[in-house]
Design a protein that fits this description.
Aminopeptidase; Alpha-Beta Plaits; binds manganese (II) ion; binds (2S)-amino(hydroxy)ethanoic acid; 429 residues; 2 domains; 5-stranded antiparallel beta sheet; 19 strands
């Protein structure tokens, strides 16, 4: 698909500064505090997995804030939520910002939600300054970016952009056997009055603000990172089938022990994945044993693979070997490998990245350009419209952990750059 270039520069530096200066650090911080109460877990973290009651409550809170400002709130068939601030030319493709509200089961108070709240803060800053834009601006909360409850991740943005079919998501079940379809209907039924909008609407541009989830910006004392692209990600599910047996009476020779085979497979994969420059990211995060009893030899193991690398060729070469190695090291058991997520490395367009840099320079906010190790909804949006991201530091780079933390002043600095870029892309009258 040909990606249009972003709308021409159409605002003055003064207008961009006026908009950005109206961002209120405390209002933004208090919104994070209020959201963090929904699904709060010990250690200052959050468990607000996608399409759970906590997710539904967080959506309701966001909608109440949006409605209090008179913004139009819409939803699509996979429950992506859109908050729209009208533009003078309301038929023009909107400039969109946002991220996700769902979290990991042991997640943090900033991953995802920061991008949604930064977008809302940007709209309010424009209101507070009485700035009317040419194009409408929308804030989006994408459904199921994390992929921890229903795998894989980024379902909402993938379906919105046409990279995945909604029908393929509906039968996916969580660990309790609940189908995505029923959790989705429960969520949509919680906001019955919201206007429904179609997938694949034409967008003018997309900018996502997110915490870095790495240590670089904090280590360099930089409040903002401007992201040039996202490394590739491959997800697999490996099923190892053995035979359950009595732990006391079955000799080792006679066993088809699924745990023993799974451990051998994982260690062989780790050897294959080893690289001297520590660029490969290979993670087995889920390891489910059946029947999971201390005195029964395991009949079956299902384990996940999350493999990432910035180089498409390395990603492909190593991914190709996963199935063969799994079969070779399965011993007396049977191993089957299914790929559930395959995203090549993506690069954002130079011109829209340049517009974000211009915004940071206008505001004299220190930044560096950098790539993203984490995947984001922006990965899918970059296939349908000019797309870029900005990062703010998080403490020691910790994320996907209740200890995830960020500073109010950094969240505000990132939001100011976002606001300046949004009004620049949306144009003013
Ligand atoms: O896994 C990821 O990269 C994202 O944080 N969900
Ligand atoms: Mn995220
Ligand atoms: Mn995440």
């Amino acid at each position: 698909m040909v990606i249009d270039s972003p709308p021409k520069v159409s605002t003055s530096r003064e207008i961009r500064l006026t908009a950005a200066q109206a961002v209120r650090e405390n209002r933004l911080w208090q919104r994070h505090v209020a959201m963090a109460r929904i699904g709060a877990i010990p250690g200052n973290g959050v468990n607000r997995q996608c399409l759970t009651h906590e997710d539904i409550r967080a959506r309701a809170l966001l909608i109440s804030w949006a409605k209090a400002r008179g913004y139009r709130v819409t939803v699509d068939d996979i429950a992506n939520l859109f908050i729209r601030r009208a533009g003078l030319d309301d038929s023009a493709p909107p400039i969109v910002t946002g991220s996700h509200m769902d979290t990991q089961p042991a997640g943090g108070r900033f991953d995802g939600i920061y991008g949604v709240l930064a977008g809302l803060e940007a709209l309010e800053a424009l209101d507070d300054q009485g700035l009317q834009t040419q194009r409408p601006i929308e804030v989006v909360a994408w459904t199921n970016e994390e992929g921890s409850r229903f795998s894989p991740g980024a379902m909402g943005s993938a379906v919105f952009t046409g990279a995945r079919l909604l029908e393929d998501c509906l039968p996916v079940t969580d660990l309790e056997g609940i189908r995505f379809e029923s959790a989705l209907h429960q969520t949509l039924n919680a906001t019955p009055s919201l206007e429904r909008v179609p997938f694949r609407r034409r967008l003018g541009a997309y900018i996502e603000a997110h915490i870095e989830q790495g240590p670089e910006l904090e280590a360099k004392g930089l409040p903002v990172g401007i992201v040039t692209g996202i490394q590739g990600s491959r997800w697999f599910l490996v099923k190892v089938e053995g035979e359950s047996a009595h732990a006391g009476t079955t000799s080792l020779r006679a066993r088809k022990d699924a745990v023993r085979s799974a451990v051998n497979i994982i260690s062989a994969l780790q050897d294959m994945m080893h690289d001297g420059d520590d660029q490969v990211r290979f993670t087995v995060g889920r390891f489910d044993v059946t029947p999971n009893s201390p005195n029964t030899v395991a009949e079956e193991v299902m384990f996940s693979i999350d493999f990432r690398h910035p180089d498409a060729a390395v990603l492909e070469t190593k991914a190709q070997r996963i199935s063969e190695i799994s079969k070779r090291f399965a011993g007396p058991c049977k191993a089957t490998v299914v790929e559930t997520f395959n995203r090549a490395p993506s690069a954002f367009g130079a011109d829209i990245v340049g517009r974000l840099e211009q915004a940071a320079q206008d505001l004299d906010i220190g930044y560096q350009t950098m790539a993203s190790g984490a995947f984001h909804d922006a990965n899918f949006l970059s296939e349908v419209c000019p797309t870029a991201m900005l990062f703010v530091p998080c403490e020691r780079g910790i994320s996907h952990n209740p200890a995830e933390n960020a500073k109010p002043e950094d969240l505000a600095a990132g939001t100011r750059v976002l606001t300046a870029a949004l009004i620049d892309l949306a144009g003013t009258v």
